[in-house]
Each structure stands twice: as C-alpha cells, then as structure tokens.
Amino acid sequence: MLTERQLLILNLIIRHYIAFEEPIGSKTLMKESELAFSSATIRNEMMRIEELGLLEKMHSSSGRIPSTKGYRYYVDHILTKENEEVSDDVRKQIQHAFRNPYSEVQEVVEKSAEMLSSLTNYTALGLGPDTKNSRLTGFRLVPLNEGQVMAILVTDKGYVENQIFSVPPNFSSAEIEKVINIFNQKLIGRTLPEVFLKLKTEIPLITKKYVDSEIDFLSVFNDIVLKLEQDRFHVGGSMNLLNYLDASMDKEKVKAIYSMINGSPYIHSLFSSSHDGIAVQIGSEMNNDLLNNFSLITASYDTAGNGKGLIALLGPTNMPYQKVINIMKIMRYELSDSFNDFYK
C-alpha cells in the first residue's frame, strides 16, 4: 500500500507522462509541481515506488516513467478519487448523434465507433448485440436479372443483410414465390441456429416437392449470417494507430496489428467477455506482445432485452484515462437509450 505522499508522486509522474510522454526526475517534478518536499525526499520516494514495480527507468541516467503495473494502480486506486468533467460541447455532440432515429443496428454500431474515435483521436471499435440468438423476422427473394436473385434477411435485433446469388435460367417468378412462402411458413420467428437446422434437414425436402430448380439455400443463408456477424463489428479511426506505433517497428508487425483490429477472433475475445460497465486492460495484461504499448478500454451497454453491445478504445498506455472513461460512460448511456427507442 502506498503512503499519501507516494500516491501524490505517482499521480504526478503519470499525469506528466500522459501530457508529455517523457521521463521525469525528482528535481523537475519538484519544480513543475511545486511540491513541499526536497528533491532528495522525492528521489527516495520515487525509488521506493520503483521497487514496488510501479515505475521504471528508460536507462540508468533517465527519470522515471510509469510501468504497466503503475498504470494499473493508477486506474484502480487513483482515478476513483479524481473527477474530470466532460465538456458540455462533447456531451451535446454525443447526445445529438444517438438521439437521431436509426433504421438498422449496423448504423448505430458504425456511428458509435466513428464518434468515439473522432472525440479521442484513438482507434475505436463497436460491437453490436449478439446475432446467435436472433430470430428471423423477414425474408425476401428479389429477382435482379435472368440468373441472379437477391436474398434479404431481417432479424428481430434490427440487423438487415442481403446476398446476391446465381440461379438457373429457368428459375421462374412463380418458383421464387413458392420458396418465399415455404421460408415464411417454416422459418420466420425461429432463431438462426434453428433456421440452419431446418435448412439442413426439412427445407430441402419441401422445396424439392414444389421447385424444380436445385439451389443450395443453406450456403446462401450461411453467407448472409457471416455478413451479419461482420456487420455487427466496426472499426473507427484505424489509421490513428500509426500515431502511436513505435517508429522502429517492422512492417510485418504493423500489418499484424492492423489485421488484428479489423475483426480477428483475438480482438473479439478481448472485448467480448461478459462484464457490466467499463473495463480497462493495460499492455501485457492483454497477453499479446503486439499490444504491450497499448491499453484497451471497453464499455458495455444494454439493448432493451436484446443482449449487450460494446464499444472499445485502443490507444497508448499513456492515454488520459479519466477523460476517455468519462466520454465512454456518456456514450454507453446514450447507446442504451438509443437501442431502447430502436426496439420499441
């Protein structure tokens, strides 16, 4: 446990590094902060804090910088005592963005990631409500031209997706209507896993009776659901990462980071954990060397009984945590409100 003096010194060092991204020594800290302690006292306290693993040196002659453990202590024990209000302008921007009516869930997810990135200049990720237990509420087949049809799928969670697929030239409009009727009778109102099961077993036998053309509807449906899953995930401000990557990092690592944030299973697992509220993961806590210099803040929000959504922010470990967390608190509240209106 840190003493009050050590807490003060750790807080000042972290705030300095967040603002200037440079190590600080005891003399500079005393001058900049007007501490009522001698340089020697501050130096000794910094050494004790370093021994606890909360500070580290870049090299032998430099000042100290926060360690991953130091940031963790700061987030868990110091931020809770501080209060940094979000400006009225930012609050109004967020409220205005999410109080507009939306016609699709994808629009809300995209807006949340783009806005969070714009407000922070970091990379933001949005994840809409889970599609696994969604129910099929709408299905249409729309002829485009001879040999091509568009399938449109709508779920109870507000997702809308389409897929164009090829059909035999002799696939008539009458057969299209038959397929739509079969799907409406047998599939509407069922969960997506139930739909998959029926497409594997019952539907092929029924369509064979009424439709001469053989079409792999299971494959078409699978492609649509894959697109649904991709569309519930959106990355905003991916190029912002370039501002915080080590200049010496080789190109392959840069590519690996970009590949990771653009929907890889790993990044999903990082912020798909079931938690309520806001969670902070710092550097090595994410168990991935590529992210050792980053922090990930995630915020969950309720979607009116339709599961949870998530917004996340990936930025440097020296991000202004209090400011970012407060922005995300407002956003999760407004997102929850927006989904309540959406599902009415």
From TrEMBL:
Residues 107-325 form the Heat-inducible transcription repressor HrcA C-terminal domain. The keyword Oxidoreductase does not apply. Keywords: Repressor, Stress response, Transcription, Transcription regulation. One of its GO terms (biological process) is negative regulation of DNA-templated transcription. The keyword Repressor applies. SUPFAM superfamilies: GAF domain-like, Winged helix' DNA-binding domain. Pfam families: HrcA. GO terms for molecular function: DNA binding. Negative regulator of class I heat shock genes (grpE-dnaK-dnaJ and groELS operons). Prevents heat-shock induction of these operons. Belongs to the HrcA family. This is Heat-inducible transcription repressor HrcA.
